[in-house]
Amino acid sequence: MIPGASQPGTRTCSYYIPPISETLAHFTMLGNVECAAVLALRMLGRTDTGTIDCGNGISSAEKIAGTQINGSAKQILRTSHEAAINIALLKGNNDVALALLQGLTVRVETDLGAMESSNPPANVNKKDVAALLLHAANAGVPLTSHEVRWLHQRIHEAFVAYRDPSMATAYRVFDPATPDGTYPYQPEGDGLAFSDLGVLLGRLRVAVPKSFNSPCARLRQAAHRSLNSAKVRRLVVAPRAWILCGQREGPSGCHR
User: Fold this and answer.
1) Any residues with CB less than 8 A from the CB of 37 and at least 6 apart, and which?
2) Strand, helix or coil for residue 58
3) What domain range includes position 44?
C-alpha cells in the first residue's frame, strides 16, 4: 500500500505525491535546454504557458552543443519539441505553436542536410531523420518536394524490409512453431523504425460522425475547435498554402 493512498473499497480520493527526490524525471531549464518538455507539461496541465518561453523550441545550449549531442538526447529534444507543438494546437495556443513549428522546420532542414552530407555526424542516422520528417509533417510543417522524395525512399525501404520472409518469426514470437531464442522488442528493418510505421496514418483524414461520442471523437472535435483561427487552419490542414511554404521554397511557392 502506498503511504497516504485510499484503503481498498473506500472513496476518500486520497493520493500520494512522492518527494522530488523520487520523481521519475527531472527537467532542467539551464540554458532552456529542456524548455519544450516543460512547456508541453505546463500546457497539458494548465492550458496556458505561464512564464515559460521556449521561442522556436531550439535552445541556445542545443545550438552550441551541435553535433556533440548524442543521438538519444537529440531524439528526446525532438520529441519534446513535437509534443509542445501538438499540445499548443490542442489547447488553442496558436501563436506558440506557430513559433515552435518554425523551429521544427529548422530541425528538419538541419538534420536532413547533415544526413545527406558527405560526412554525416555520428548523432544523425537515417531512421531518426525519417521519424523527424514524419512527425514534423503530422504537426504541420510543410515538407518540400525534396524532403517528400527522400521520405518516400525510406518508406520503400521499410516496405521491402518488413515484408521479407526472414521477418516472419519477429511477428510470431509466441507462435508454437517459432523456435526458442532471443528476439527484439519490435521488428527491426531498414528505412523506418517499426514503431514509426503507424505515424503514416496521421496523414490520413478520417470522417467521423459528430454523433459518435467516443473519447477519440471528442478529442478530434476539440482539436478542430482549437484550430478555428484562419492562420493556423491554413498551416495545419493545408500547410502548402501558408507563407512558411514560400519561405522554404522561394517566392514562387511550394513545389507540388
Assistant:
1) 27, 76, 80, 83, 84
2) coil
3) 20-249
